[in-house]
Amino acid sequence: MPSPPSPYIDPTVLPSDVHDLIYIANITIGGVSFPVQLDGGSSDLWVIPTPGSLPNAETSSTSLNLTYGIGWAQGQIAFAPMEFAGIAVPQQAYLNVSSAQNPAMSYGAAGIMGLGFDSLSHIDAAINQTGSSSGRTLLYNLFHDNPSEPNFIAFSLQSTSNNDGIQGSFAVGEIDPSYANVTSTNKIPTWPVTSPLRWNVLLDSFIVGTQSNAVSTTVPAAPPNKAVVLLDSGTSYTYAPTDVCTAIYGGISGAHYESSLGQWVLPCDAEIDVALQIDNQIFPIHPLDVTPTAMGDPNTCVGSFIPQSVSVAPGQFDWLMGDNILRSIYTLYDFGDFNSSGKMGDPYVQMLPLIDPVQASIEFHNVRGGTPNTNITYNVSNSGSGSTTVTLSTDVATALENFSKFLPAILGVMALNALVLVVLVVVGIILLCRRRGKNPRTRKIPGRLSPMPMGNFSGARDSELSGEVPQPYQPVSMALTEDTLFAPPTPSFKNDSSRFGGRPNSIA
Question: Where are the beta strands (DSSP E) in 140-198?
Fold first, then answer.
């Protein structure tokens, strides 16, 4: 049995990337540090303490079972002081788990921290049945610590396979300075706009090479020319309709769908350039994330877009967008700020593309061999609000030629702009000082920015409490829970929609 976790010392979040499949951070509960998977597809926090119960924790008589796309956890709801991202909560509800099966545990995680809304929290629902409101999620309590603070989280996911220079980070109420431009991007509403269960947004279209592809939806009341997609950091790959995956992989010479794997298998040197259009913005996906190497076989590559509908929460979304997409985007998840009545506003998402497709092509061929594509351009398709062209890369030689031709005129314009800029800076400083005096938005305890280093978990977590034997990680959703059954279910992902419906039930 592993030794107990070491006492919590540094309050900084230290997320770790395990083989581009799972992202783990440290949280302190009752004075003890636990590594937990960061999961955008669920809302509950649970850990398996080793050994026995936690100090400074109070266990209730309410039992609960949580079921995920793969795996489950059962135990009793407990309360303890917690710290996360440098912010303390004096008393937080969580599930003190006595038995669990989950692939994350084989890679060093002692539990899961859901990053979703209170409306999807089974712990909160169970506590509400007792007449108490003390079951709120950890993120809600972090925000509620001071209602005047911004209620958002923001993070990027580092990759182990791409030498793209993108450093992962996670923060509460703060933005990584490297990605400050995220605040200038569109505020993308969730779907539904008000009181969503999950971090769903509307997808306009997807682009493969130079071909823009329309999308559709099966979600009731959603626009027919959109697809409802769930942003889920707890899922390694992306689950999409069969025709979408065929459009991505079907045109590649030597590619075929392998039914025994449930995935496409294709030549490793085949570069596939994919981009998504969301709210009239283009988000290129790194080609190494579109065709990762198979587990245990570096000579075989598979499609990370899985042609399979998700039986969890049927009718709520069309695509489940996992880490293979989110690694290419810096994402800000805003839960909505508190108004004067203490009610949170409508949530939204802001997304900053991190991938230059030309540079990504160079990185792909540095790893896989072959010749990079030196001119990749994506156009925003008309989705009902006008047509806009977005060029993500240009011909470098042409740009240099034009620059030298118009250099004298450019210098003259720059001199005039410099004068205007000085005036604007002075005016901006005056306005900024006035704004800060009226409406402070910084945290009294700043959210901690921290790097998301690549973890090295050579030893798997094997606990007598979990009964789990280390096994190859299966890159499918581990965080789609929407039910709590009276007995631990068989950990299965396919064709078991009956396990995922309805609100949770507590067991006294």
Answer: 152-156, 168-172, 188-189
